[in-house]
Design a protein that fits this description.
Blueprint lengths: L4 H26 L12 H25 L3 H31 L5 H23 L4 H15 L1 H10 L6 H23 L8 H16 L9
Helix pairs in contact: 1-2, 1-6, 2-3, 3-4, 4-5, 4-8, 5-7, 5-8, 6-7, 7-8
Length: 221
């Protein structure tokens, strides 16, 4: 079965998101038990990690189902995806609020995380509403995924000693959206502004950081 160039692009995006999440959270979550005397992960963070990992895996499965033209199973899993996203709201927000309440992070950092989650939920809601419009549906789903990558990318930047590099952190986060914009520009010979929704969201959050005087990277979950 020959895949279209668009299917290939979104398949590549799914692999990219899986790699980023694994690279970011392998030391502190996925491979934690491989380390000697690992620090126990709080229950609410375990739940958070499991739910959000299911979501990232589900995105990849859905993308490859479309590539294989298994639309029936894709629709069935779409309902499951809605349930997972509903679970992502409390399991995403609670760790942010709890960390701020316990003094583990600043109010500005918590606000940054909450903003990313809210944009993620918003883009998913639009994608779900547009599920009968594949062109828009896929692009809003990618925007949703982009908003979830901030924490994983931040941890990758810590490992690489680039924690204070906003160019690295923000650049890596918007990369899939920018790549999609260029892809559509070449393929359709026109500007597709919906590709840049997550870029606008990420830059607006960053602008808010600058205005509020919070210039250092947020303390992500």
């Amino acid at each position: 079965m020959k895949a279209t160039s668009e299917n290939i692009f979104f398949s590549a995006s799914a692999i990219w998101f899986l790699l980023i999440v694994f690279a970011g959270f392998a030391p502190s979550f996925y491979l934690l038990n491989l380390y000697e005397d690992p620090e126990p992960v709080p229950t609410h963070l375990v739940i958070h990690g499991v739910v959000y990992s299911i979501w990232v895996l589900l995105y990849a499965v859905q993308v490859f189902l479309i590539r294989c033209k298994n639309y029936r199973l894709h629709k069935i899993l779409g309902v499951f995806g809605l349930l997972v996203m509903i679970l992502m709201v409390p399991t995403g927000m609670f760790p942010v609020v709890f960390k701020a309440y316990s003094g583990g992070t600043t109010i500005d950092a918590a606000g940054h995380n909450v903003s990313r989650f809210l944009f993620c939920y918003l883009f998913f809601a639009i994608a779900f509403y547009q599920r009968k419009q594949p062109f828009l549906h896929k692009r809003y789903m990618l925007a949703c995924m982009n908003m979830l990558m901030g924490a994983a990318i931040f941890r990758v930047s810590m490992d690489l000693g680039l924690v204070e590099s906003q160019l690295f952190n923000k650049g890596l986060q918007v990369l899939p959206a920018v790549a999609l914009f260029v892809f559509d520009l070449i393929k359709y010979k026109k500007v597709v502004l919906v590709d840049l929704t997550s870029v606008a969201a990420i830059l607006s959050i960053f602008l808010w950081q600058i205005i509020s005087g919070y210039l250092l990277p947020a303390k992500y979950l």
